[in-house]
Amino acid sequence: MTDLPFISRSTKCFSTTKTEMACTSGLGISTSWLKSNPLLYTALLLIWTFRVQFKLWSKDTRTGTHSMQEDSSRSPSYTVACEDYVHVVEFSPFSSGTPASLLAYGGNQYVVVGTCLFQEEDMEIEGVEFNVLRAFHHELRVDALAWSPESRLDRIPTIRFCTAAADRRLRLLTSDLQDRHEVKVMEGHTSYINHLVFEPTEGKQIASVSDDHTCRVWDLDGNESTTLRLRSPGISVCWHPEEVFKLMVAEKKGTIRFYDLVTQQAILSLDCGQSPLMSADWCLTNTIKVGAVAGNDWLIWDITRSSYPQEKRPAHIDKARLFKWSRANENLFATTGCPGKISSQLLIHHLGHPQPVMIGSVPVGSGLSWHRTLPLCVIGGDRKLCFWMTEM
After folding, report:
1. Pfam families from the xrefs (predicted)?
2. C-alpha span between 215 and 255 (Å, rounded)
3. Is the C-alpha dihedral spanning 36, 40, 45, 48 positive or negative?
């Protein structure tokens, strides 16, 4: 917010003649009488000057809300150069067994896996230290990616993640970063796959949602163990961090359902009240909270209170695209605008603040992911990764 102007006795913002006219008009006070009372003259001068400047400030604030948001757009805290356009980027939500975090990013026919360590985690580092572990060839452009909890770098290094591509297939990639490298192709979806996630405790199952109106659960051999029939395209899927039989599935028409995988029945549903729903996320540090973006708005539910959103606010002028909860703070979340324009807007929100606590912008940004322990998120861009650190 713009600071109020500081008014001093020596202000020369306005001419004395205009001030005298303004102070005396309508009051029946002559200018000569006013000048013969210097204290009253000074007081009226200060009051009038403050009133006019406050009007100017108020007008600028009312008419300049959008421009002020744009002007406050913050550059990334850190950037990492890449060789090609980044379409998806994901921090591993699981510990790597080392101080560094695993991160994967993908684009046209490639996936790069590396480690990130930030100066907030190690005082000997300046900015960010990013080390590439391996680049994987991928037959098609990567459209979605999920990490397995089995990925670790201590003991015997193991990297395991799953991707989705436009050929409607999942690919499970496993590597020891040495000689062993396996790719398991999983087929079954009949349309575009929008999102996927590993079961978070042991990583022996994968759930995926698709435009074919299904959520499918797979074992690591590529067998379907469960198929949930949806009423519209599946947009997002999240697994409960501890109760492995609970799955959240968000549909494009604006409904979010929670399923019991034992009975394969919905046990709870939430309603956006609008569509299309573009992205939804389960707050895994406080599982009574669910968030989503639909249209221009972000929406928050407390699932113990109502099936309708507890909070709803406009976020992006050109439609919202992604919603992700921070893993470091249950009240912190990020939204992005739709990619493909000159620049993509990142907004970081805190439930205790009426306005975004940070605004970022990246040319043609894509993807969104939060660090496992820091209030830091990443977006992919044209030949770079952009990281924003947020004050909690």
Report:
1. WD40 (PF00400)
2. 14
3. negative
* Per CATH, domain 78-389 is 2.130.10.10: yes
**16 by DSSP, 3-state: which?**
helix
Give the helix, strand, coil percentages of the chain, each rounded to 5.
10, 45, 40
Q: Would you list the domain boundaries of the chain?
A: 16-61, 78-389
Answer positive or negative: Cα dihedral of 225, 230, 235, 240.
negative
Return mean pLDDT, the chain. Answer: 85
What ranges in the chain are assigned the alpha helix state H?
16-24, 31-35, 38-63, 65-71
From CA 272, how far away is CA 292, in angstroms rounded? Answer: 8
**Calpha distance 78→96 (Å, rounded):** 21
pTM recorded for the entire structure: 0.81
Look up residue 224 and give its DSSP letter. E
3-state secondary structure of 49: helix
The DSSP output letter for 286 is S
Give residue 108's Cα distance to chain centre.
Answer: 23
In this predicted model, which residue has the larger pLDDT, 343 or 135?
135
Nearest to 105, CA basis, from 138, 127, 78, 129: 138
Residue 254 near residue 275, CB atoms below 8 Å: yes
Pair type for strands 320-325 and 332-337: antiparallel
Give per-residue pLDDT as tens, 167-177: 999 999 999 99
